[in-house]
Amino acid sequence: MGFVEGLLWLTLNIYHEARSEPEIGKLAVAHVTLNRAIEEQKSIEEVVTAPYQFSWTFQKSSFIPAEPNSLQDSMRVALKALTSKDFTGGSTYYHRTDVDPKWASHKAFTAQYGSHKFYRHADSSAQSMPF
Prior knowledge:
Strand content: 5-15%
Helix content: 40-55%
Distance between the termini: 18 Å
Largest sheet: 3 strands, antiparallel
Order of helices and strands: HHHHHEEE
Number of domains: 1
């Protein structure tokens, strides 16, 4: 997978998962996506489209963004995430604050950004992005 395809999937994930969040929340979602790609040694597309990992990929009938300004902002944030250090403590999971998924009790809470709580594996330490 090339850079352009990875940027597109990262942008779409930010758009669909966090477009209404403050920039820090969008960046955190982007870093979770990137952290998973590194941890799982998969492309960003494979991470985003993995079954039942990101709700928009199985709950929406269309992936086509309807808000051009939000899409543009999501791409700006995606580019920023690709060139910035992970600040999420190596998070590879998150959920909205208004839900309480069972899996969260088995993860280590790292922080809250906007309306999402972020987690990593309970037995792992923070990782740095490799760039």
